[in-house]
Description:
Blueprint: H1 6-24, H2 41-62, H3 71-90, H4 99-114, H5 129-150, H6 166-205, H7 210-241
Amino acid sequence: MPEQLWFTALLNKVFGGPITAFLDKLPPVFHPTHPEAPITNAVAMEVLVVATLILVFLFVRSRLSVDKPGSTQHLAEMMNDFIAKQGEEIIGHGSERFVPFLVSLFLFILFANLIGLIPGFISPSSEPAMPLGCAVVAFTYYNLHGLRVQGLGYIKHFMGPVWWLAWLILPIEVISTFARVMSLTIRLYANIFAGDMVTGAFFALMPVGIPVVFLLLHVAVSGLQAYIFVLLTTIYLQGAVAQEH
């Protein structure tokens, strides 16, 4: 059995049996490697991040006020307005419908990056599955909106401006589009994994003093990588929903 964090062990103790029974009814590819512990550390951390975000959203919602907005409301509005303004500048008209998704994506990645700084936890984004999942969600989201806005004409987006070169442009565009998933995944995973390794190494060698610098650097990298992920998703959205006039 793999080494489990205390929160992972708790989830496996409560939900491990039903989850294993459910997965065993699916094709063999879905069967857990360790039936006694089907929930991995990364999945457990993602569950914890989602639960934390729900509590944060409920707390912010309870503090909303038209007459006397507090610091919590101001902070939430600043972050929402920042993402919304960036979306408006990049996507243009109609960008407001994408703001909830982009804000949620940013917060999920940010919290997933930072939770590893808490003793006893790890960053799920330092495991390849979580960045890949976010990349697939972003990829699916912007392509579906491209189809929604442009219909079947969205396929022309992959064929280039000259019809007689479509046979050459189409495979290149398709490959480059799917490469975005790999790019988003590797960028997020590599930076957070490296940050965790460097911070952990310096704490092991020198528990006080210098490691604090790397800890603060890791916080900055976590925020920057969450922002870059959302920025690239916004750019991809713009390319998918933009219509030529």
